[in-house]
Amino acid sequence: MKDEIKEGSEVMKTPREKYDNDPEYHNIVNLIESFIERAKFTPSELREAAIYACIRYEIRHHQAIVFDFETERAFKALEDFGRRTPKEKP
To answer: Do 32 and 46 form a contact (C-beta atoms < 8 A)?
Structure first.
């Protein structure tokens, strides 16, 4: 149980346990790792892409959410970043 994390009364699996026991999780980790190895994306870009995918999902599935000004500004910055051409990206 050294790799398990307790949250409330539930025992959550660590990333290593998920990787070892969940084929879909295993595959996504391998895919992400291959992007890094082939220099397609940096780890920071992959984290950013994962967060942006979550944001897009939330927006599509929870239309009633109202965001404060700072959150809206962050969304706009992510959208603007996603629209830039490869030459414009740092």
So the answer is: yes
Q: pLDDT tens digits, residue range 16-62?
A: 999 999 999 999 999 999 999 998 889 999 999 999 999 999 888 86
Q: Cα–Cα distance between 7 and 30 in angstroms, integer?
A: 27
Q: Please tell me the pTM assigned to this model.
A: 0.54
Q: Which residue has the tokens 């026991």?
A: 21
Element (H, E) at 71: helix 69-83
Please say whether the beta carbons of 23 and 13 come within 8 A: no
CB within 8 Å of 3: residues ≥ 6 apart: 13, 14, 16, 17
CA–CA separation, 59 and 82 (whole Å): 16
